[in-house]
Write a structure and sequence with these properties.
4 copies of one chain form a homotetramer.
Chain A: E1 5-11, H1 28-42, H2 47-52, E2 56-66, E3 75-85, E4 89-98, E5 104-115, H3 126-131
């Protein structure tokens, strides 16, 4: 039975913080991407192999609500949850919390589209869909 | 009469593109930030001076719709428009297009909160509000 | 007669500065890469076209001496000079100064190797060599 | 007895790789910085606390030799070794290898200068020097 969520710890790097001493807001998207990679890995899928097989995913929508600042050297818990899978799209939702205090740092959502190497939208391969643990209807 | 929108050209750097050969989605937030800085500059405000005066802005909400990929060395036109100013918050909306073809690359929206050096929300100073060209009601 | 040096202005972005309020040292390599791209462009060469033609360049050596900090919104003048071209390698040297004050910010040097799409070192194509303006002996 | 070297594993992120599919050369400096932070941590020193106490370190020299490319999702072992401590400067040397194969990815060296919050060079505090495990003469 595949996992539909996972939590990855990420330590905030000095180079990722800004003059206010906090994690720059543009960096959150990188953490979300790491969360998605980790969720795939947990289900035995390597995104690098997918790319080599011509199955690419591009982000078509990103939304982040920044709730509380994160600082250099903080360890953040990035929780990624598969929200919905349709023919060619995948929605994830995320919560980022401070590992030490449990404080909510950010909430986020993304939509990915499955494309081929020329960037054309294609259906998500059936076996990949199965490994992602999506048992609901195809929309 | 202050400007409430501006367009800034930004050339996509090699280091900003990913293995798919396109501008990585996390980089758009950086371009939006540059657009906001430019809009302030057009109205005679330097964000660096604001920070030195204890008037900081943090991004509390970010949303991006990615419409079409941008590639290395493409010149993008980042149009930033002031959408709304409330007591302590500023909303901007953005359109990013390809300078050469006019193709829409992305649409985006952000909300900023005005904070002091300790990160506490504070009212946007009246003179700054005036220079941003916001003539509507305070909400 | 091709140019063997050029100067490109780059404005320091907020997202590139760190908690000390200065341009993070890892970002200089990106500015140097922009300088090299610009020098090629001045000589009618587009690095994107080179890549498409299977002529890639990888950095094999990087050295930077950081002389003085650069701050958010500073405009830096990145001067790139072609230093030497051998069969498969190109050396550049750089000086980065503050546009407003002329102060020296950093000095740098890089070595690039010409590789094919599989990463194997290959000779720099003769016509490219000519367009880069290298009239000295091949070493 | 303090440690004068340590090894930190870092997984290459998608956002850190370029159109050639390899870790962008500008990112190595970030990994070196993480290695230095980790070496301090091993000796009970938190760089964040140092900054709060007005003891800052700026990179004055960086040199990297890139030996072999690293790819997305590779786990790299970043070995950091304290090379020399003088009154106000610290030299480190580094080796980055591929965790899975042992292949050498890069070698590097940095020099840091100890500065105060105004950026003026200051002597490294004696207790910090002790915790870094430098038993040699002060130069």
């Amino acid at each position: 039975m595949p996992d539909t969520s996972c939590t990855l710890d990420v330590r905030v790097r000095y180079a990722e913080t800004d003059p206010m001493g906090v994690l720059h807001h543009s960096r959150y998207a990188v953490f979300l991407e790491m969360g998605r990679t980790e969720l795939l890995r947990k289900n035995g899928v390597n995104y690098r192999d997918l790319e080599a097989a011509g199955v690419l995913f591009v982000v078509t929508h990103l939304e982040v609500r920044f709730r509380s600042p994160a600082r250099y050297d903080d360890v953040l818990a990035v929780t990624t949850r598969l929200e919905r899978v349709s023919t060619a799209r995948i929605d994830h939702v995320y919560a980022i919390t401070d590992r030490a205090t449990g404080r909510l740092i950010a909430e986020a959502a993304t939509t990915l589209a499955c494309v081929d190497t020329d960037g054309r939208v294609q259906a998500i391969p059936a076996d990949l869909r199965g490994r992602m643990g999506w048992s609901g209807p195809t929309r």
